[in-house]
Amino acid sequence: MSTRKKLYAGTLAVLLGAATIFNAGVTKGEAESNTENTYLVIFKDQQGLPSGYAEAIKKAGGQVEDKLDKLGAVEVTSKNANFLNEVKKSSIVLEAGVENTVYPEQTFDGETVEVEDLTEGADFYNQYMWDIKQVTNNGESWNLPGGTGLSVDGEDIVVGVIDTGIDYNHPDLKDNYAGGKSFVPGYDDPIDQNSHGTHVAGSIAAKGEALGVGPDLKVASYRVFGPTGGAATSHIAEALMTAADDNVDVVNMSLGGYDWFQDPAYATKDIVADVQLFNRAIQYAIQKGVTVVGSAGNNAVDLSSPGKLSGDDTGSTHRSPSSQTMIRVSAGGALKNLAFYSNYGVGKIDVMAPGGDLGPNYDPATGDGRDNSYLAFSTVPLLDANKNVIGHGYGGKGGTSMAAPKVAALAGVVIAKHGKDKLNPAQVKAIIQSSSEDVFENGYDAESGHGLINAVNALTIK
């Protein structure tokens, strides 16, 4: 992996816009007075808000802005520079901290084409969608029992997409759209004003010129990102909790950030508020039978030795949101290689899926040799200068964001085969892992985890 280590220094500055590194123990609230900050307060009771919680917040100089009752947490604003010190004195509080911001993964984008501009008779799927072919063995999996191909009957399997929204009027998605909700302040519509979420949704369940891994799966939009910028931890946690309450079968989270701990031992403990909240939300969903899938990140670093993210090998970094109980996905290319941008690491990756890259001749250090045909192609909205949807199209992107939804779709396909509510998330994960293809070392490895996902193997596993 020596070439990857060299690559890191040149790519971090470009990719860091997709992820925020947080220093546990240093908060804006303690450093600045007369400034209103937003905090998360996590209570010891995981299944509700304890008696006296409002009084404890008020006593510390805070005001409750949002309640996550089922996760035992609240979002709080305060101008008190000593709010954290004061609220942590309460016997009902487990942890509190500045609320962090998470972003959709930054992707490598190619050109887009409008639906109406496709050449008459052109076969978009066969010409561009190598990634879907790779997972489905050229569509073979669609024709297997439970393969959720082009003519499957039975109960609907819904994949919730926690992202920038979905262009639910896109001709390749509208028949498979199962509704949505927005958690973005000031934006009630779960429509996509970015393109990221629609691209993700298309990889799951597009059915038209583009095809997803499960063309008869359903997708639901849980929008947490506005036209630009990031999302508060509490909004993402609330979206995940809501998706679970809505009884979706799978959730895809192609988003993330990092929490940095000066003491490496802290990375294994739920001591930071946003890590604690994410873990509770993930476990809440899994306990309700939802298979949760997430992207590994695009910083080209070894997450098992993540001090490098903070500039050296001291300390440790936690990928947020992430948990060993969910499915964590690295990104591969058309040549079944690890994509140059993909994070990796022993114990940090479960499987690899095609996320696209820029071809075998691409030099990340210089940008030379770029070939956009190696990107992953899917559905996207066409946006005007004000980020309003004015049309529908297709575009290429590269990122672990593009890899994760293939795994989410495969999870949906596996559930469809065995029957809704017949498998728990751990069993779904085990099937996906055990049916994956060894592409690097035999067995488990740092780059691909248990291997490259394979829908045919997953549907025929004994």
UniProtKB/TrEMBL annotation:
What is the first-listed, main subcellular location in coarse terms?
secreted
Stretch list, region Disordered = 303-324
Give the family this protein belongs to, as stated in its UniProt record. Belongs to the peptidase S8 family.
Q: Active-site residues? A: 163 (charge relay system), 196 (charge relay system), 401 (charge relay system)
Q: What lineage, starting at the top, does this entry show?
A: Bacteria, Bacillati, Bacillota, Bacilli, Bacillales
What is the protein name given in its UniProt record? S8 family serine peptidase
| Keyword terms | Calcium, Hydrolase, Protease, Secreted, Serine protease, Signal
Q: Name one Pfam family in it.
A: Peptidase_S8
- Gene3D superfamilies the UniProt entry points to: Peptidase S8/S53 domain
Tell me the organism: Mesobacillus jeotgali
Signal peptide residues are: 1-24
From the Swiss-Prot or TrEMBL record, state where the protein is found. Answer: Secreted
Q: Which domain of life is it from?
A: Bacteria
Instruction: Tell me the ranges covered by the Peptidase S8/S53 domain, including all copies.
Output: 154-451
**Polar residues: which segments have biased composition?**
313-324
Name the coenzymes or cofactors required: Ca(2+)
